[in-house]
Design goal:
By secondary structure, this protein is an alpha+beta fold. The protein has one helix at about 5-20, and strands spanning about 30-35, 40, 45-50, 60-65, 75-80, 80-85, 95-100, 110-115. It binds copper (II) ion.
Amino acid sequence: MPESNHLTIAALALAVLVVATGAEAHARLDSASPAVGSTVGSSPGQVTLHFTEALEPKFSGATVSNAAGARVDTGSSASGTTMRIGVKGLGPGTYSVNWHALSVDTHKTQGSFSFHVGK
Ligand SMILES: [Cu+2]
């Protein structure tokens, strides 16, 4: 392959890298309560997610499921950079939080994490 083609590929790779870095301004999960991967001693009253960008409430939401995959939440709401998911009386076990977000810059993101209730 001629040397000029190598340079073109390098320039393209750099351009892709720049675009991918810019994409990281989307609403990503900044922190959560219960924290990602944490163990809490008793059922939380709700799960709270904090994002890196403000959310469009109508197009952002989350669910909490137990280890069997059944939903155990009572609904979610978003305001500003915060999303809240109602839960009640979670017994000991592992729970999965699945979230999707549309940030005010119109970019969609989604993710999941788990936490544990137990002793
Ligand atoms: Cu974005």
